[in-house]
Amino acid sequence: MAERPIDRARLTVLAGPTAVGKGTVSADVRARYPHVWLSVSATTRRPRPGEVDGVHYHFLDPDDFAGMVASGEFLEWAVVHGRNSYGTPRGPVEERLAAGRPALLEIDLQGARQVRQTMPEAQFVFLAPPSWEELVRRLEGRGTEDAEERERRLATAQVEMAAAAEFDRTIINDDVTRATDELVSLMGVDQLGTPSR
């Protein structure tokens, strides 16, 4: 897909393969650009060490998640890696956009495709690893998945990598600080959180 000019899109969607560092970049946005509003996704997976409910994710049991799906409370949702459900609560995103403020979603490929259907005016950014070998190294280095889960995630990552052309922009995550700065720049937000013109 040809790159669109930076359009100061109010909604920016960040996606990429497993272990590429989406969570790390999002945490860096949260720490260094607190004026950038980052949507908190819901998930049925268990928290990883250091993750805080309501900050990193809303950790829900499967029945509660299914109830939110049934009542249309998600902007997007999907079952990821064939196991856990993830979704973006609709209300907080719509409130932020209605106030005319930029919003950032960090989601998986399936979710990004759903958002493109409902909000095609959003800006879609693909976070890519410097190489496949580096992606494998990062996944193995996390130590949060067993061998079977790592293999499942790597198979998914191959499919996800092939989808980069569907996105408006690609950022190579070779350095977290640089990748974060590039993402915030693409959002067209200045240091005070005001959309730049």
Describe this protein's structure.
It is a single chain. This protein has 197 residues and is an alpha/beta fold. It is built from seven helices and nine strands. It has helices at 22-32, 62-70, 90-98, 109-118, 132-142, 147-161, 176-186, and strands spanning 11-15, 37-38, 42-43, 58-59, 74-80, 84-89, 103-106, 123-128, 169-172. The strands form two sheets. It has a five-stranded parallel beta sheet, sandwiched between helices. A four-stranded mixed beta sheet has the order 4-3-6-5. Helix 1 (22-32) packs across helix 7 (176-186). The radius of gyration is 16 Å and the shape is globular. 32% of the residues are buried. Residues 1-9 and 192-197 have low confidence and may be disordered.
Short précis:
This protein has 197 residues and is of the alpha/beta class.
Topology, element by element:
Blueprint: E1 11-15, H1 22-32, E2 37-38, E3 42-43, E4 58-59, H2 62-70, E5 74-80, E6 84-89, H3 90-98, E7 103-106, H4 109-118, E8 123-128, H5 132-142, H6 147-161, E9 169-172, H7 176-186
Parallel strand pairs: 1-7, 1-8, 2-7, 3-4, 8-9
Antiparallel strand pairs: 3-6, 5-6
Helix pairs in contact: 1-7
Number of beta-strand segments: 9
Q: Which range best describes the helical content: under 10%, 10-25%, 25-40%, 40-55%, 55-70% or over 70%?
A: 25-40%
Q: Ends: how far apart?
A: 25 Å
Order of helices and strands: EHEEEHEEHEHEHHEH
**Number of alpha- plus pi-helical segments:** 7
* Largest sheet features: 5 strands, parallel
Radius of gyration: 16 Å
- The CATH class name reads Alpha Beta
Please state the overall shape, judged from the principal axes of the Cα atoms.
globular
Name the CATH superfamily classification: P-loop containing nucleotide triphosphate hydrolases
Oligomer: single chain
How do the strands line up in the largest sheet? Answer: 2-7-1-8-9
The low-pLDDT segments are 1-9, 192-197
**What percent strand?**
15-25%
- Any idea what the CATH architecture is? 3-Layer(aba) Sandwich
Q: Would you tell me the overall average pLDDT? A: 87
How does the helix and strand content classify structurally?
alpha/beta
Integer tally of domains: 1
